[in-house]
Design brief:
Blueprint: E1 3-10, H1 16-32, E2 40-44, E3 48-58, H2 61-64, H3 66-69, E4 75-77, E5 90-92, H4 93-111, H5 124-134, H6 138-150, H7 153-168, H8 218-231, E6 232-237, E7 240-248, E8 250-252, H9 253-257, H10 270-287, E9 311-319, E10 328-335, H11 345-363, H12 370-385, H13 388-407, H14 417-427, H15 432-437, H16 440-452, H17 454-461, H18 473-479, H19 484-509, H20 522-534, H21 538-553
Parallel strand pairs: 4-5
Antiparallel strand pairs: 1-3, 2-3, 2-8, 6-7, 7-9, 9-10
Helix pairs in contact: 1-8, 10-11, 10-12, 12-13, 13-21, 16-17, 16-19, 16-20, 16-21, 19-20
Length: 578
């Protein structure tokens, strides 16, 4: 009898079907070693997943027989009176649906001001199974579970051993012929590549339909059903459905099993759903990062690691509603961030702070509006691909949007200046962006722009406006962002007007108390111009311009919306430059 320590699942479909199979295999091998403290790790490689055991396992009939008693995924009872196979633990979909419906009605009554009775909690799995049910995936998994439980013990054992041996030898599970060979329907919610599409090799008369069941390997689908109970989640996007699967980069089954209870944020828009799913995973990892290092099975981001070193991505499949059907319309992958690694406990706190702040800022964006949808798109590109230029473009565009939002007296949220500085410093210490934000001229000009825009907007709202509000300044900087001379002209003209207003205010007040602003010096402008000279590339110039808007539109270090805490400065006859 052969002993095996490593097993392989290829990335054949290019979808989350491969991930589901790899996670399912991880759980199966963990169970075959008795569960409990058994350590089974799944690692993502370029073209496959490798599932590794702490100790080699001998595959034989007696060992795998445990899978017949517990096929490792739930039988879902969707109709009153429906019974699960003997010995298996069912998931009561009917009862959980009744509780979910009660919650929905309770929310309506709460809005009407009525008192509410205490309700039982809905299982986090219900909302996943609900979407699987809509996508017609429950029948296939229930049917296979029934066949596994009812199979002849020796035939099932021989089949499982043969399939696992094939995976251990780097072959496909479908290459191992077995006497136990149930037919499994091709279901797109578990395997998006078998969804509606062109399946013939030639163009003449190509039919649109699912992959025939004869081409679907029952063991691979079994692994996917197991994996779906661990890492599959979803969102309703209007009448459409978006399913998500967490991709392990390097995680043990105990890592993954805790995801079964993770309740992802629920939103009804696609881009925001992607972003919040990543945020939820990062916060989940950071909450576990302070577990003692000696517990090798526990969830933690090790020293020197970033979130992407544990979970590489969230794979998605979008099912578009066409009335009576919801065919697959888009397959994508959203990477987890690798902004900076956790080097000490303080970094865990910073991660949490950044994520919560960014979540709050993005929450107000309405994806149904073109400008705000583009903001979310830029942020998602940054989050998924560590695309810092997209983030800078997001910050610049967000500054413009928030100015208009404030003037319309609509709620808005801003980034905190200190947090932005920390994010850039911790994540990009070797890149020019740190040199830019530490430049004294840049800092002083950004502060002056903030005083002439968001600070004076705040003063206007309080009935204390003194200076002109430069409403179009952010947009003008954004328009000229790629052109060094034109950008410098915009900044120079602003400084000239800013200093003129300050001088006129000083003349009006003379030695009387009142709110003043400090002028921008020629030295500041010179340092900013030299900064542009050091980074003459168009993208670099654009990055500096976007950073200028970002730091001009963010909150001060105290977390206040403006610098009005500095208002009504006592008169001084000392000329102090910013």
């Amino acid at each position: 009898m052969s002993c095996y320590r490593e097993f392989y699942v290829g990335k054949r479909t290019g979808t989350y079907a491969d991930t589901l199979a790899a996670v399912g295999l991880t759980k199966m091998l963990w169970a075959l070693q008795g569960g409990g403290d058994a350590v089974v790790t799944v690692t993502e490689e370029s073209s496959r997943f490798c599932v590794t055991l702490a100790e080699p396992v001998e595959l034989h009939a007696e060992r795998v027989s445990v899978l017949q008693r517990d096929p490792l995924y739930s039988f879902i009872v969707t109709k009153p009176g429906e019974n699960a196979p003997d010995g298996t633990v069912p998931f009561d979909y009917v009862a959980n649906k009744a509780i979910a419906d009660a919650y929905r009605e309770a929310r309506k009554r709460k809005k009407a001001g009525e008192e509410q009775d205490e309700l039982h909690d809905v299982s986090p799995k219900f909302y996943v199974y609900q979407k699987v049910n809509i996508l017609q995936g429950i029948s296939a998994r229930n049917k296979l579970l029934e066949e596994i439980v009812a199979a002849k013990q020796e035939e099932l054992a021989q089949a499982v051993v043969a399939k696992l041996a094939a995976l251990a030898n780097g072959r496909l599970a479908s290459e191992a012929a077995t006497k136990f060979n149930p037919k499994v329907a091709a279901v797109q919610v578990f395997n998006p590549s078998v969804g509606k599409g062109i399946n013939r090799l030639k163009a003449d008369g190509a039919g649109r339909g699912p992959l025939p069941s004869a081409f679907v390997d029952w063991f691979e689908e079994w692994l996917r059903f197991i994996g779906s109970d661990v890492v599959l989640s979803g969102n309703s996007i209007g009448d459409d459905i978006k399913m998500n699967v967490v991709v392990p980069a390097r995680a043990s089954y105990r890592h993954l099993s805790e995801l079964e209870q993770l309740k992802f944020s629920y939103v009804r828009t696609s881009r925001k759903a992607d972003i919040l799913a990543v945020f939820d995973l990062v916060l989940f990892l950071m909450d576990k990062a302070d577990v003692p290092t000696g517990t090798d099975w526990a969830y933690r981001v090790q020293v020197g690691e970033a979130p992407r070193d544990v979970f590489s991505a969230v794979q998605t499949a979008y099912f578009k509603s066409l009335g009576s059907a919801k065919p697959i319309s888009n397959i994508a992958s959203i990477g987890l961030p690798q902004w900076f690694s956790v080097q000490e406990e303080a970094h865990i706190v910073r991660w949490k702070t950044f994520i919560e702040e960014h979540r709050g800022v993005l929450f107000l964006l309405d994806e149904d509006k073109t400008e705000e949808a583009e903001l979310l798109h830029l942020y998602r590109d940054f989050l998924s691909g560590d695309d810092w230029l997209s983030f800078l473009r997001f910050l610049g565009s967000y500054g413009c949007w928030s100015m208009k939002r404030r003037e319309a007296k609509k709620p808005t949220r801003s980034f905190v200046k200190k947090h932005l500085e920390e994010l850039f410093t911790l994540s990009q210490p070797r890149l020019p962006v740190v040199e830019v934000i530490n430049n004294k001229g840049f800092q002083n000009i950004a502060k002056a722009i903030r005083q002439a825009t968001v600070s004076e907007q705040y003063a206007k709202a309080k009935g204390r406006q003194i200076f002109e509000i430069k409403y179009g300044l952010f947009q003008e900087i954004k328009r000229k962002a790629k052109f060094r001379e034109e950008l410098l002209t915009v900044i120079s003209e602003f400084i000239s007007e800013f200093n003129y207003e300050n001088a006129r205010r000083e003349e009006q007040l003379r030695e009387a108390p009142g709110r003043r602003r400090k002028r921008v010096s020629m030295q500041d402008l010179q340092e900013f111009a030299e900064l542009l000279d050091r980074f003459p590339n168009q993208k670099e110039t654009e990055a500096i311009a976007m950073l200028l808007i970002a730091f001009a539109s963010c909150k001060d270090d105290k977390g206040t919306d403006t610098e009005d805490q500095e208002a009504d400065l006592a008169y001084t006859n000392e000329e102090v430059e910013i």
